Structure formats: C-alpha cells, structure tokens
C-alpha cells in the first residue's frame, strides 16, 4: 500500500518508470516473430517434454496392467492347485469346470500382455497389438458375462472378471491415441517453423 501511495503522490515531473514501477506498459513487442534459432530451441524443448510425457504415461499404465497380470497369475495358480478356494471362482463351481476357468484367466493374461506390448513398443504394428488385445478382451468378457447371467443371482462383486481385461485394453488404446495426437501436434509445429528476417 505504501508503494502505491508513493506512486500517486509523485509530482508530474518525476519519472513514472523507476524500478519499483510494476504498472508500466511493456517496451518490447511481444508479437514479434522469433528467429530460427529460438524456434528450433522451442520446438526441441516441446519434443523433449512430449517424449518424457509419453514414456511416463506408457510406463504408468503398463505398470498397472503388470500388477493385474501378476494377480491373474496368482489366480491361475490357486485354481490349478486349490480349485474353487477363491470366492470369485467358487461362484461358477456348478457352471464351469476348473480347466475352463484357468483357460479364461490365461486369455485375460494374454490380453493384458498384448496391451502392454502394444503400449511400450512404438512401431508400425503397435496399434495391431492394441486392437488385437481388445478383441481377445471382448471374447473374455462375453465368456464371463455368459456364465454370470446363468447364475441364480447376478454377482456384482465379480463384474471385474469380464470388464477388467477389456477395460484395460480400451483405456490403453485411448492413452496411446492421446499421446499420438500430442506427438502429431509437435510435428506440425516443427513443420510450421518459419525463418524470421530482421528488416
């Protein structure tokens, strides 16, 4: 408040552009084009940020899916050596045999592993891995939903069995799409670079 009061009390002859004056208009044109070197540095920094973000988010979602894969491997082990001890498998004791349950869990594991491969390995076949995992995830979802609907009572607590793998694949496809859009925007920006020549 004291600084503001001092500014208003200044006489007209005093300079209004002292070092404390934060209300002065800019003396530099902010709309001027930037030169080629500045453009290159800006685009390169954006490319580095985009690459770091891509690695980060691919790693995060691959890590989450890896945890789910570890859980499914444990589920297969339990069903193979201690059949029907897990509650979410025991619901289907009279509907499906133990081997079919194990096969369904392995299909879910395959879905997740294909999704992880498609997410981590950037190549021209990347989308094929992701969409293939989505197709297998749909088969797993249909299998579990079919048997859940045959139960005397629909069990909402095991709805993750059909939705887990397909949801993981779907979310990863969306993440990959967003990262590709971001990368494409940076590539467009590099294409729009112009050479500024001072007059």
Automatic annotation (TrEMBL):
Q: Where is this region: Disordered?
A: 1-37
Compositional bias ranges of the Basic residues kind: 1-10
Keyword vocabulary terms for this entry: Membrane, Transmembrane, Transmembrane helix
The domain of life is: Eukaryota
TM ranges are 55-77, 97-116, 128-146, 158-179
> Any coiled-coil ranges, and where?
none
- Protein name per UniProt: Uncharacterized protein
Task: Please name the source species.
Answer: Solanum bulbocastanum
């Amino acid at each position: 408040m004291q600084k503001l009061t001092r500014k208003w009390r200044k006489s007209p002859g005093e300079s209004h552009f002292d070092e404390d004056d934060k209300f002065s208009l800019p003396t530099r044109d902010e709309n001027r084009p930037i030169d080629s070197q500045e453009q290159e540095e800006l685009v390169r920094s954006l490319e580095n940020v985009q690459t770091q973000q891509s690695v980060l988010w691919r790693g995060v979602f691959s890590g989450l899916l890896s945890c789910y894969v570890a859980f499914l491997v444990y589920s297969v082990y339990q069903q193979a050596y201690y059949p029907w001890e897990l509650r979410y498998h025991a619901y289907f004791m009279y509907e499906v045999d133990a081997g079919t349950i194990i096969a369904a869990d392995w299909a879910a594991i395959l879905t997740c592993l294909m999704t992880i491969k498609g997410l981590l390995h950037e190549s021209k076949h990347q989308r094929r891995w992701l969409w293939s995992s989505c197709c297998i995830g749909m088969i797993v979802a249909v299998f579990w939903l079919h048997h859940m609907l045959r139960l005397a009572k629909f069990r909402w607590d095991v709805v993750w069995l059909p939705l887990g793998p397909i949801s993981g694949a779907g979310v990863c496809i969306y993440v990959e799409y967003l990262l590709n859009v971001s990368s494409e925007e940076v590539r467009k920006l590099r294409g729009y670079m112009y050479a500024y020549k001072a007059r």
